[in-house]
Amino acid sequence: MDERQALSSFAALSQETRLQIVRTLVVAGPEGMAAGAIAEKLGVSPSTMSFHLKELDRSGLIGQQRESRSIIYTANYDALAGLIRFLTEDCCAGNPHICTPAAAVACHSPSPVEKKA
Amino acid sequence: MDERQALSSFAALSQETRLQIVRTLVVAGPEGMAAGAIAEKLGVSPSTMSFHLKELDRSGLIGQQRESRSIIYTANYDALAGLIRFLTEDCCAGNPHICTPAAAVACHSPSPVEKKA
DNA sequence: TCCATATTTCCATAATCCTTGAATTATAGA
DNA sequence: TCTATAATTCAAGGATTATGGAAATATGGA
What are the tens digits of pLDDT across the range B44-59? Predict the structure, then answer.
């Protein structure tokens, strides 16, 4: 992931509705969710939803595919993983020696998922 | 890190100059860097730099401390790590079973740092 | 073909963000 | 105290972003 893409991804995630869209699609899984269903779930108008979905699509964090009359949106896990990696490298990669313990935890330990399990 | 803080952090990182400030401070390490030095390095005016530093400070991604006439800014590694964790949990935690291989790499594998070493 | 559904695009408005220059505050030294 | 340095704050502008309603596009079924 290059800087331009990262900037675009951060911008996409910096808006409450869009962050909730991403969360919703991550939870929805590979099956995804229709635009209207997301709009209803989050309580925003169709045109506003369309605006935000387009923004997320342009940033690459989600994808879309038409299915009959609906357009199904799905989270792009690769892009999310790429963004995490970008952030991780900016945090530690160039200078692991200056990482504080907390930063080191994020960079070198088992993930929170494993800790919770 | 709660959602409000995450939104604020994403907004802070979604602006080119601010992202470069964070990068610069991460590289600078715990010693930090004076506002003027960052401004000169990045080629922006003092007031613009001040505006962005304040924004980053409000989001918690950087900290400041006066040293004689200068104000020294430092990256907040804990906050960066917290943001990485927030993103990681949104990506995988609630539903590790739907992680694609690429996402799983970001969530469960050794960090890129270790791979590069 | 006609109608209903699902979504997007267009438009106008309101809000927020970014930048700059001028004025202000804080510190240090002569 | 006076001057220089280092930053911030303020005010004004131009640019971008967010929202919702109305109109347009695409699909499927009677």
Answer: 999 999 999 999 999 9
